[in-house]
């Protein structure tokens, strides 16, 4: 009896799914077309040009872009006592330190596979269609309706830190050139200040043979006044953070007076549980103080 029940159940389930897809798919296609049209509608540009802002970025760079010529060194935020004086919150600057831009197409194969598997029930072709379409808005700095700038506004974030990334097998490549292009977009400026600043990633592919080129590209990127730091991720760079091969990057950071942001530990795409004990030991060296402190010193 059971052998007869299973095919009937599967058949009815598949039939229901097909009927549902006939309703959902046209709606999704219509929504996608409307959003695509909206993406080409020009947005109002701020009155102050980006050139005038960049010309003022002569003083030491800060995440909030507050250190401008003639204004002196920016003061630390006022002390906020939430329960006593909520009005001080309007003076509190909020920085989101980790914002990725890009698209589904730019991701590596592991990244695409991970995101596709995160969506339940739907067939893969529909999942990929949804991810391609949504990323053009939600992962675009100035995408219509749900772009990164709009999302920051909803969350009352003053400054978003956009990251360039070199992780071709996982999250993909968001180049230094693309980062600068987004930072120089006139829509980045509001009330005379940038809404985004950047941290530059480093291409460490074949590092022993290409580090001179990578450091030259990093230095060129750090010349830009809105690129205010360096971002490294052990899981993508494949060296423990106390490895001496990072020294040229640290020296470049010192030269330009910028911080280095370390993304430590694992990611959903490369889990510790899937690694050998030797590989797990390399991970531990990225976040245990006894390894990191000597490297920092």
Which key terms come to mind for this protein?
single chain, 297 residues, alpha/beta, TIM Barrel, 9 strands, disordered N terminus
Description:
The chain is of the alpha/beta class. It has one domain (50-102, 139-296): Alpha-Beta Barrel (TIM Barrel), CATH 3.20.20. 44% of the residues lie in helices and 12% in strands. The chain is built from eleven helices and nine strands. Strands 1-2-7-8-9 form a five-stranded parallel beta sheet. The protein has a two-stranded antiparallel ribbon with strand order 3-4. The chain has a two-stranded antiparallel sheet with strand order 5-6. Strand 3 and strand 4 (172-174) form a beta hairpin. The chain is globular. The relative contact order is 0.10. Residues 1-18, 36-47, 65-74 and 76-84 have low confidence and may be disordered.
Structural class: alpha/beta
Proportion in β-strands = 5-15%
Summarize the biggest pleated sheet: 5 strands, parallel
Roughly how many Å apart are the termini?
A: 72 Å
CATH class: Alpha Beta
Helix content: 40-55%
Rounded mean pLDDT is 75
Tally of discrete structural domains: 1
Q: What Rg is obtained from the alpha carbons, in whole angstroms?
A: 23 Å
């Amino acid at each position: 009896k059971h052998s007869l029940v299973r095919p009937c159940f599967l058949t009815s389930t598949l039939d229901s799914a097909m009927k549902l897809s006939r309703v959902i798919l046209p709606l999704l296609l219509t929504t996608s077309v409307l959003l695509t049209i909206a993406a080409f509608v020009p947005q109002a540009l701020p009155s102050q040009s980006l050139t005038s802002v960049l010309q003022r970025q002569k003083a030491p760079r800060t995440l909030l872009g507050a250190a401008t010529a003639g204004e002196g060194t920016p003061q630390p935020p006022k002390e906020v006592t939430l329960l006593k004086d909520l009005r001080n919150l309007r003076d509190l600057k909020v920085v989101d330190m980790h914002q990725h831009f890009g698209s589904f197409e730019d991701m590596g194969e592991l990244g695409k596979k991970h995101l596709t598997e995160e969506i339940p029930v739907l067939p893969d072709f529909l999942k990929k269609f949804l991810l391609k379409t949504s990323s053009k808005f939600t992962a675009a700095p100035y995408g219509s309706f749900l772009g990164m700038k709009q999302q920051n506004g909803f969350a009352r974030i003053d400054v978003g830190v956009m990251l360039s990334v070199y992780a071709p097998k996982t999250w993909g490549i968001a180049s230094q050139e693309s980062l600068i292009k987004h930072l120089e977009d006139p829509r980045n400026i509001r009330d005379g200040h940038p809404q985004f600043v950047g941290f530059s990633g480093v291409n460490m592919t074949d590092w022993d043979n290409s580090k001179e080129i990578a450091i030259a590209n990093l230095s060129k990127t750090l010349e830009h006044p809105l690129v205010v730091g360096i971002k490294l991720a052990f899981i993508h760079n494949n060296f423990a953070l106390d490895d001496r091969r990072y020294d040229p990057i640290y020296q470049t950071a010192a030269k330009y007076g910028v911080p280095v942001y370390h993304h430590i530990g694992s990611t959903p795409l490369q889990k510790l549980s899937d690694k050998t004990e030797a590989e797990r030991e390399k991970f531990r060296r990225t976040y245990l103080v006894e390894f990191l402190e000597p490297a920092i010193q």
